[in-house]
Amino acid sequence: MKQLQQAILERGSVLSDDVLKVDQFLNHQIDTNLMINIGKEFVSRFQDSKITKVLTIESSGIAPSFMAASELDVPLVFARKKKSLTVTDNIYSSGVYSYTKQEMNNITVSKDYLSSGDNVLIIDDFLAQGNAALGLVDVVKQAGASVAGVGIVIEKSFQEGREKLEEKGYRVESLARIQSLKGSEVTFLEELVT
Ligand code: G4P
Ligand code: NA
Ligand code: NA
Fold first, then answer.
1. Which of 41, 52, 74, 103 has the greatest CB tally within 10 Å of its CB?
2. Considering every ligand atom, which ligand is closest to the CA of 59?
3. Binding residue per annotation — 156?
């Protein structure tokens, strides 16, 4: 997606050989026009799937997911990383190891918001090792629902996330695929397409 690739090149910064900072439009400040177009792009890529729900994880997954869910006219559910005060039982939960933060997080979704009839589009802002996405897949499975696919805003293709998801048979659609961040330079797997 050209608008996204340009935002990454012009407004992102490479923090190290494997971390890209995109606080300017995705992880802190949000570029609303870009999010609207990201939502539309996800919908066009999954237009053959009869999606009934979008599932993401707080907090940075919410903005792009909201746009896709709104465009699809289906509800958006976000998994929580912190224990909720009001939702304490009746939950699906999955352990997600954060490689970047070197810690285990328990993600939870209330059983009220996912059921066996659902066909779920999982969306997240980044795909790195794939642990967050696999945790969301696990939650969908626990609900007896089906996974329509995984939509990612920025995939770091040099990490194993996509491989792990595809190995399990899930379709992955990433709007920007980064081949390398070496030497402070962003290289995309696909050319900037006009
Ligand atoms: P994984 O889920 O694919 O295994 O990735 P990992 O545990 O490494 O990711 C932990 C957090 O770091 C996630 O956000 C993820 O979106 C984010 N992340 C991973 N790689 C990058 C990167 O190169 N740049 C940026 N900006 N973020 C990255 P989170 O902790 O869930 O935070 P939130 O922003 O959603 O609140
Ligand atoms: Na995220
Ligand atoms: Na994030």
1. 41
2. 1
3. yes
Q: Relative to the alpha carbon of 100, which ligand is closest?
A: 1
CA distances from 164 to 104, 123, 127, 161 (A): 19, 16, 11, 5
**Mind listing the pLDDT tens digit for each residue in 80-122?**
998 777 767 899 999 999 887 888 989 999 999 999 999 999 9
Pair 104, 97: CB distance under 8 Å? yes
Q: Is 33 annotated as a binding residue?
A: no
- Specify the residue with its C-alpha closest to ligand 1, atom 13: 126
Q: Which residues line ligand 1 (CB under 6 A)?
A: 19-22, 27, 59-61, 98-100, 125-132, 156, 161
Backbone angles phi, psi at 77, to 5 degrees: -115, 135
User: Which among 99, 166, 107 has a CA at the least distance from the CA of 136?
Assistant: 107
Lookup: tokens for 26: 């995705």
Q: What is the pLDDT of residues 24-65, one digit of tens each?
A: 999 999 999 999 999 999 999 999 999 999 999 999 999 999
Which tokens sit at 173? 């659609």
pLDDT at position 194, please?
53
Distance 161 CA to ligand 1 centre (A): 12
Backbone angles phi, psi at 5, to 5 degrees: -60, -40
**167 token code pair:** 């190995």
- Is 119 annotated to bind a ligand? Reply is no
